Amino acid sequence: MKLKKVHSFIDKFIYILIFLNVGAMILESHVSIKEAYGASFHVFEIISIVIFSAEYIYRIIHASYKEGTKGAFAYVFSFYGLIDLISILPFYLNQLIKIDGRFFRILRLFRLTRIFKVGRKSKSLKVFTRALMSVKSELTFTLFLSVITILFSSSAIYYLENEAQPEKFSSITESIWWATVSLATVGYGDVYPITVGGKIFASLISLVGIAIVAIPTGVISAAFVEEIYKERIKRKM
What we know:
The protein has 237 residues and is mainly α. It has two domains: 1-113, Four Helix Bundle (Hemerythrin (Met), subunit A) (Up-down Bundle); 119-237, Helix Hairpins (Orthogonal Bundle). It has seven helices and no strands. The chain has helices spanning 2-28, 31-76, 79-96, 127-134, 136-161, 172-183, 196-236. Helix 1 packs antiparallel against helix 2, helix 4 crosses helix 7 (196-236) and helix 5 (136-161) runs antiparallel to helix 7 (196-236).
């Protein structure tokens, strides 16, 4: 029981630290803020990497203690295990090979999908409300996936296009506009990538956007039709 409480505390602490890291990454992309607090951001990054690394090692040891070597390998090659590794690996690689892999830290947000496993009871008064509530977990995950994809896309395009177009992709915050309209398949054309890497990434992310827009539309439509059918059955009875 105590071990569960410890794990719960660790998870909550890590979730908070993840959000703080993403916030720091976004703020650091602003030149004025980076110039004023660059040293503080660097110290915070080192502390965060140490904590994430310790957590990664702890989870391997815990999995090994619980299920032996098989459990340790299962965690390391699991989805969350790979995300944990990818989120800290660029920092260490940067010490040996000078690469800027900071935007990979956004991948840690995928771990927060665990939060949405907990369901909430709510009363439904209307057919449409019942339809939404019946697929709330799917919609919540889709919304969360959309936010993650927008943050990841804006971060990636910033690092790909900032040098070529510093006025249009001046920060991750500014790049969120491009990411949003691209994923929504609107594409106003006021901001667009001009580098080869940026164009390739934009092509891929546009295809992803079609899927992200289609998923909630299909889910809501199917749920709405099902609730209407149930309502008609009740009236006949």
